[in-house]
Write a structure and sequence with these properties.
The complex is a heterodimer. Chain A is mainly alpha-helical. Helices cover 76% and strands 2% of the residues of chain A. Chain A has one domain (3-337): ABC transporter involved in vitamin B12 uptake, BtuC (Orthogonal Bundle), CATH 1.10.3470. Chain A contains 14 helices and four strands. In chain B, 75% of the residues lie in helices and 3% in strands. The chains are: A mainly alpha, B mainly alpha.
Chain lengths: 338, 292
């Protein structure tokens, strides 16, 4: 996506709460701001970490929601006001960086465990790790409060406004999403990002050029861990807490669905997919059947994988060339015969 | 001492169930490099459809209800597996990651449709009289007979698979296909048809595991994830595509789970996954796997 288009999208998102306020009643506009756009942004950040790994490293990891959950649990365990208080007592200013640090370390650890594997092996190992963490959280009372999880993680009060006030939450999420998105686009142009892409395309040649393949891979997982951690803190505040269900198999697969629907080919796909997911989740009731959201989203996912492996973004990118192709082919034929 | 023996026996009977399910997963992966993320769904499909046949017969007190449920469950899972390979996976052979994603999509839809049709109430097969009750064992004392049947089934499956792979023409083709599919097809073997047969067999094993598993413990939504995960861990530990490896992996995972739960219940999961991580660190191809 071009820089101009990115800025345009950012401007639209900046104005969105006010535009929504003009278009619909107050309560409805607030619902759209937080529960659709805000939710799309925070889960989009988690999906961004997967899209980053898949697009530039070639790793499809199913453990990104888990890494996000580690940040979420980290904050929930440390922060004051959480119920039940496990460690507690820390202000958000300390608990949030600690949570993100834990997620970054978890990302590095997963990278180190999976460093010698690729493709489907990586998919299997990360899935197994993801389910291990959620089952551990479910069975452990001392640290994770078991099945119930930890509630009442409401976020800090900024400038006298509670964090979950709709506009504050929305703009904080938007700022985080925009910063991380820009950060990813910057990072992939740095030497580190270029080597990462070289390793994706041909690890042996990159190794022959003298780059440490394993170290770059582990570092990429660390970066993805940081991104997922930021997302995890925000999703935890969005959900007012965290429980094993929010990092379980379904949640991990949902992040994969978001990334794949949006498209594993450009970071923007994470947010496109997340918005589509949030809209579907909210309006599945009126589309098909109240309880059959999973069938609906599963079929959409299947359709995307079968028709356009690079997702909606890839589809949108191909449409102009699909329209242009016949004419160009005609011109080529005319040139040949003429 | 008796407690230790019981825990080990519990681990072995659990391992037997894991082996039946995971051997199908491993077989499919070995030949076609297809990671069937819907393997747990095949387990559920086999178990639920078998239950739908079992229940009315059991109500009429037909003695053969359970014995009929076993082949029905296997056939249902095999049909589902063949349909998936034929309609979705066959034409993208070689695109492993895409196939894995497709099977994830299938598993989401199947799990949701099963929930819609069968609801969330747990169900359980009742073992026929001959397999019900307890058996007196040395050291352990009274032990559920059906758990021992589980071990017998696993041994039978293991022997059957070994005979099939080592002694039959289909097995010959499968073993050749694992090594070099292109050459096999150049020798005039219809590889897609062999793939279909292997998929049917692997799926049928998931269905068999479904009926056996749902007799030993209740059948409920979410079991698909559990058995997919177990299959993954078993083949990662044992080695992909190897029947002996799957057996070794099943025994290790089954024992680790039961011993972990007996010694430190709330940290038990760590033992199983610590095992997986340790194997990955030392032998990424699995204990009995060949390096790619």
């Amino acid at each position: 996506m071009s820089a101009r288009l990115s800025l345009l999208a950012f401007a639209v998102l900046l104005a969105a709460p006010f535009l929504l306020g003009l278009a619909m009643p107050q309560a409805q506009a607030q619902f759209w701001t937080v529960n659709i756009l805000g939710r799309a942004l925070v889960y989009g950040i988690v999906a961004l970490s997967l899209t980053f790994l898949a697009t530039y490293g070639g790793f499809v990891s199913l453990a990104q929601m888990t890494v996000a959950g580690i940040a979420g649990y980290g904050v929930a365990i440390l922060v004051e006001g959480a119920v039940p208080g496990i460690v507690g007592g820390l202000p958000y200013a300390l608990a949030v960086p600690a949570g993100i640090l834990a997620a970054t370390l978890a990302g590095l650890l997963i990278g180190a465990i999976a460093v010698r594997t690729r493709d489907i092996y990586l998919l299997m190992i990360t899935l197994a790790l993801a389910m291990a963490v959620s089952r551990f959280a479910e069975s452990n009372i001392d640290w994770f409060n078991g099945y119930e999880g930890i509630r009442n993680v409401v976020g800090p009060t900024l400038f006298g406004v509670p964090f979950r006030q709709p506009h504050l939450f929305y703009y904080a999420s938007l700022a985080a999403a925009a910063a991380l998105y820009a950060g990813v686009l910057y990072l992939v142009r740095t030497p580190f990002g270029l080597v990462l892409q070289a390793i994706r395309d041909n690890p042996r040649r990159a190794a022959a050029l003298g780059y440490d393949v394993a170290l770059h891979r582990i570092a990429a997982f660390g970066v993805a861990g940081f991104i997922a951690g930021c997302g995890g803190v925000l999703t935890t505040i969005y959900n007012i807490g965290i429980s094993p269900g929010s990092i379980g198999l379904g949640a991990s697969v949902n992040i994969l669905i978001i990334s794949v629907i949006g498209g594993l080919g450009h970071p923007v796909g994470a947010f496109v997919g997340s918005l589509i997911f949030a809209v579907f989740d909210t309006f599945a009731a009126s589309l098909y059947d109240r309880d059959r959201f999973n069938t609906l989203i599963g079929l959409v996912f299947l359709g995307i994988v079968l028709v356009s492996p690079d997702g909606i973004v890839g589809l949108a990118r191909r449409i102009p060339s699909l329209l242009r192709l016949p004419r160009r082919a005609q011109a080529a034929r005319a040139a040949e015969t003429g | 001492m008796a407690l230790a023996a019981t825990v080990v026996l519990n681990g072995l009977t659990l391992a037997a169930l894991y082996f039946v399910v995971a051997s199908g997963f491993s077989l499919i992966f070995g030949l076609m490099r297809t990671v069937n993320m819907a393997h747990g769904s095949l387990y559920l499909v086999g178990a639920y459809i078998a239950y739908a046949v079992f229940e009315p017969l059991y109500d009429r007190e037909a003695w053969y209800a359970w014995y009929l449920a076993v082949p029905v469950g296997m056939a249902a899972a095999a049909l589902a597996g063949v349909a998936m390979q034929k309609l979705l996976l066959g034409w993208m052979q070689g695109q492993e990651l895409r196939q894995a994603l497709v099977t994830i999509g299938v598993s989401i839809v199947v799990a949701d449709q099963l929930l819609a049709h069968f609801g969330g109430t747990p169900r359980q097969f009742l073992a026929p009289d001959a397999l019900f009750g307890t058996t007196e064992l040395p050291l352990v004392g009274r032990y559920p007979t059906f758990r021992l049947v589980q071990i017998a089934v696993a041994v039978a499956v293991g022997l059957g698979l070994w005979l099939l792979l080592a002694r039959t023409k289909l097995g010959l083709m499968v073993r050749a296909g694992v090594d070099d599919q292109t050459m096999l097809s150049a020798c005039g073997v219809n590889v897609p048809r062999v793939a279909l047969a292997v998929f049917a067999l692997g799926a049928a094993l998931a269905g068999l595991g479904g009926v056996i598993g749902a007799t030993a413990q209740p059948l409920a939504q979410g079991m698909d994830g559990r058995f997919l995960l177990t299959s993954l861990v078993v083949v990662i530990v044992g080695g992909m595509g190897s029947v002996p490896g799957t057996a070794v992996g099943s025994v290790l995972v089954g024992l680790a789970e039961q011993i972990g739960q007996a010694l430190f219940p709330t940290y038990a999961v760590i033992l199983t996954f610590g095992l997986m991580v340790a194997v990955l660190a030392v032998r990424p191809q699995g204990l009995m796997g060949r390096s790619a």
